[in-house]
Design brief:
single chain; 148 residues; alpha+beta; Alpha-D-Glucose-1,6-Bisphosphate, Chain A, domain 4; 7 strands; 21% helix; 36% strand
Length: 148
């Protein structure tokens, strides 16, 4: 990491096997349960259109797949209108019968208060966990991020 970069790191442990977590992170139909849907041709270097369905009034935005090594690693650059490009790195590791997800969000350094961004990623990762076990996903209006 350089001094011109902000790095947010989160770790989650899920009781589900790595292949199941991977499909929840990469298959549009399963992603719709917790974050959004995508269209386009999957593949390294390709641009897909990502629609964040949990964000009211959201429009599809481009996302470029930078790395894809199923079921272990996915790196995507997210294009947010009016903001610098965000890089999201997802690394999955089997742990017993479950999976550890190491989530990294890289963005250009700024004077932004990153607490809302961190809370947002906690929100989405908690929604992922709920979707994996078939529970109702948290809603933003009533969501409280875990203490760190």
């Amino acid at each position: 990491m350089n001094n011109e970069e902000t790095r947010l790191e989160l770790r989650r442990e899920y009781p589900d096997p790595i292949d199941d977590v991977w499909s929840a992170l990469t298959e549009s139909e399963r992603m719709a349960r917790w974050i959004g849907t995508w269209t386009g041709a999957a593949g390294v270097g390709n641009t897909i259109m990502l629609l964040m369905t949990a964000e009211e009034g959201s429009e599809p935005n481009p996302a470029v797949i930078r790395e894809c090594d199923p079921p272990k690693r996915l790196v995507v650059d997210l294009d947010n209108p009016g903001q610098p490009m965000w890089r999201v790195e997802l690394t999955l590791t089997p742990q017993g019968a479950g999976t550890v997800l190491d989530f990294v969000h890289l963005m250009p350094a700024s004077d932004w208060d990153t607490s809302d961004i961190r809370k947002g990623w906690h929100f989405y990762l908690d929604r992922l966990g709920a979707s994996l076990i078939g529970e109702p996903v948290p809603q933003w209006d009533t969501y409280t991020a875990p203490a760190e």
